Amino acid sequence: MIAIGCDHGGYKLKEEIKRYLNEKQIPFEDVGTYSEERADYPIMAKEVCNKIKEKKANKGILVCRSGYGMAIVANKFKGIYCAPIYNEETAKFSRMHNNTNVLALGADYLSTHEAICILRIWLATSFEGGRHAERLQMIQEIEKENMK
Q1: Which of 7, 40, 53, 103 is deepest in the core (most CB within 10 A)?
Q2: Does the global pTM surpass 0.85?
Q3: How many domains does the chain have?
Q4: Is residue 97 annotated as a catalytic residue, yes or no?
């Protein structure tokens, strides 16, 4: 299950991503926003991350104009690893090396086609483990120290 959310700037792209997920029969839950009326991205980022923390979703997709605001909020949650992604190669390596569980997309910088290609690669790529698992463990230790 994927939780997906956006602000007003990411609404149109989110709707296109939902079409893709429906076509591929990939289950998702849309946590909003549901229009192009002003919406504050921290609210939707929090909703998506809470779905993951509550184990109601195992991955998340966040869409705003740049992807950066959403990623900043998402990374405030223990156990959430989010990166703003702008191409297929970084999508692949964010999963292989960093085990990202939330994808942040910038609607102002990606076409629908590019976003879908990124999403397809991100969903299809597994965590590589090995030395990357050791580094992820280091990140988790930092979380324990700093995220009470």
Answers
A1: 103
A2: yes
A3: 1
A4: yes
